[in-house]
Every structure is written in C-alpha cells, then in structure tokens.
From TrEMBL:
Annotated protein name in UniProt: DGQHR domain-containing protein
Pfam families with a match to the protein in the record: DndB
Family annotation (NCBIfam families): DGQHR
InterPro entries in UniProt: DGQHR-contain_dom (IPR017601), DNA_S_mod_DndB (IPR017642)
Length: 366
C-alpha cells in the first residue's frame, strides 16, 4: 500500500489536537516503528541524554499477548497511542487522515507490547483503536508515555484474580483462586480471616495478613507455567478441556498439581494443602498465632510453599497426606518455634523467602 487512508475524528485537548481512528492490526504493525528508551553519551558535551521513549520489549509478555490475540474473546478496547511525523502526512481534515505508507509512518508512544503481539498474526479481521498525534517532539512523546504508565491507576492484582472465579473457562488461575477462597471462608481452615480476597481488609479478612494474589501465585506455579495462561485458555475455549492434557505447559517435576487440575479435583488439592497448613499451625503454634511473626505473612508463606514441594514428594511416596504424617515430617521445625520474625530472618522479598526456606529445610529430615 502506498497510502494509508483513515476515517478519523479530530479531537482537541490541552496538549493539542490529535486524531482517533481505527486501523487493521497487521497494517499498523507493518507501518510502525518504536523509539527504544536508551541512554547515550554525548562525547562532545560528556553528558548523558535519553534517546527514544519506549522500554525494551519483554519477550515473555509478547508471547503471552500472541496467545491472547488468538483467543475468540480477545479485545483491545484502549487506544494505541501513535505519533506521525509531518513528512508522512499527505492530507488531513476534520474527519480524515491520508498518510504516506512506509515502515516508519507511525511511531508508537504507548502500546508497543500489544502491537508486537501481532508480529506473527496472519488474519485480517482484527482492528485496533488508535490515537494519532502529528509532529510531536521526542520530549512531548516521552511526557505522554510517562503520564500513561506512571500516573494512571492500575487494577489491584487481587481483584484481577478474584474475577477469575467468574470465568466460564476452567483455567489454572480459576482453580487456584477457588482453592484460596476455600481457605479464606472455611471456619476450620488455619487461614480463615487471614486472606484479603480483594487485596484489602473486609468482613471475611478481619486479620488481613496476606493478599489473594500473593496466596494464589505459588499454587498456580505448582499447576503449570502461568506465562501460557492465554494459550491454555484459548485451547479450552476453541476445542475442549481434554485437549490440554498433553500440552507442554506444565513445569516438569515442579507442577505437582497438574494432574489434579486436569482431573478438576479441587477437593483433593484443597485437602492436601489444608492438612499441610494445619500441621504447620500445630508444629509452629506460637508463630502461627503471633501477628508479629513472618510465618503467615507473604515472606513466610512463600518459604512454606517452597518447602511444600519437598514435603509433598515425601508424603506422596508414602501415600499418606494426613495431618499426622505431615506432623511427623515437619516435627523438626519445632526447634524454630517462636523465633520466626523479621529480626531473625529478614523482613520481605524473594531472597528473604528463599533464605527462610533453606533454613526450614535444614530442620527437617526427608
């Protein structure tokens, strides 16, 4: 194509005029470039300056978007923000834009990952909403990019996970969210009242120690590689649930719950985790009840979930997931009772959780 002809609406805002339009995703991809955010040294002035506005491409994110785009309910209702240099403008009116078609016609201000998701897309039925600025400087583009990506409120991750409960597709996220809500609501659960299902304290999380998103994450990790979420969901939607049983989305020996997911066996998964944490609450009773302890906070929980795989494998070999057997396997932790706090083991973060896990493991004999 030598020209790009767009029906557009000219829009006026304090920053200036821009155009709102729709364009075929493949056409936009072929006519776009991205100014990567780089720091370069000006040798003459010996000063650092920024060139470009966008962050480096996250290939894992792009792969997830490629999977999502293929799903039958894929949608990108938000605009991709673009800039067009004046030299590419053939004509513009209140309701149309005619642009010279090149591989550099559009510079992507915001939406680079969404657009990269279409790089291998061959269909022609996906249109994207775009907001097109004309002749912005790099500084003006960078300002828009910064505002969009730093000052707009993002959805609480716990709310996102909670919404999985209402998905018609039985994904690993939905299963893990279901298990977590069972822990939060079961009056016999050692986690009752402790899980913030919406990321904030409410009537069913009066103690509010750990968020739903934090609780769900390691459970999902024991089911499959969550980076393939959209691929798995689309496979179920377009074929059937049984079609995913042989997919290479599990994480080898790490995915100890994959078979239970394929069986949709929430009851057994919950019972195993319930018995494990019931045992922890017995063996480390003082820490479990102490609000100052790390044990039921994110750091302690992540350390316990790392330990869970080791204990699970031993219990599985014994074919015994009872509370009594977990008590036996975990009895060495009794020596740590009353000491699991931030003063002794660090306050938070992945390293603190990994360090605490290694210490836990050193106290038990598997």
């Amino acid at each position: 194509m030598s020209e790009i002809i767009l029906n557009a609406i000219e829009t006026n805002q304090p920053i200036g005029n821009f155009y709102i339009a729709k364009i075929n995703a493949r056409d936009l991809y072929k006519a776009s470039t991205v100014d990567r955010l780089m720091i370069e040294m000006q040798s003459e002035e010996n000063e650092l300056f920024y060139k470009g506005i966008q962050r480096e491409i996250n290939e894992s994110k792009v792969r997830s978007l490629e999977d999502y785009i293929k799903s039958p309910d894929a949608t990108f209702p938000n605009s991709i923000i673009l800039n067009v240099d004046e030299k590419y403008v053939i004509s513009k009116t209140l309701d149309s834009l005619v642009l010279r078609a090149t591989t550099n016609t559009f510079s992507v201000i915001d939406g680079q990952h969404r657009l990269e998701g279409f790089r291998g897309y061959t269909e022609t039925n996906f249109e994207l909403v775009v907001s097109i600025f004309i002749g912005l400087s790099i500084e003006e583009q960078a300002r828009i990019f910064t505002i969009i990506n730093s000052e707009q409120t993002k959805v609480n991750p716990s709310v996102q996970i909670f919404q999985e409960l209402h998905d018609k597709v039985y994904t690993p996220r939905k299963m893990a969210a279901t298990i977590t809500t069972m822990f939060a609501k079961d009056i016999e659960s050692p986690w009752v009242n402790k899980i913030k299902l919406l990321g904030i304290k409410d009537e069913i999380s009066s103690e509010g120690i750990i968020s739903l998103s934090a609780f769900v994450k390691p459970i999902i990790g024991y089911i499959y590689d969550d980076r393939r979420y959209h691929f798995v969901r689309t496979k179920i939607l377009t074929e059937d649930f049984e079609s995913i049983s042989n997919l290479e989305v599990a994480r080898g020996s790490i995915s100890v719950f994959w078979k239970l997911y394929i069986q949709k066996n929430e009851a057994v998964m919950y019972k195993i985790l319930f018995n494990y944490y019931k045992s922890i609450s017995i063996v480390l009773k003082k820490d479990w009840k102490n609000k100052e302890s790390l044990l039921t906070k994110t750091t302690g929980y992540n350390a316990l979930m790392l330990l869970f795989k080791d204990v699970f494998e031993k219990a599985e070999s014994q074919q015994d997931f009872s509370i009594e057997n977990f008590n036996h396997l975990l009895k060495g932790l009794k020596e740590m009772e009353g000491t699991i706090n931030s003063t002794n083991y660090g306050a938070s973060g992945e390293k603190a959780a990994n360090d605490l896990y290694k210490i836990f493991k050193s106290y038990i004999n598997l």
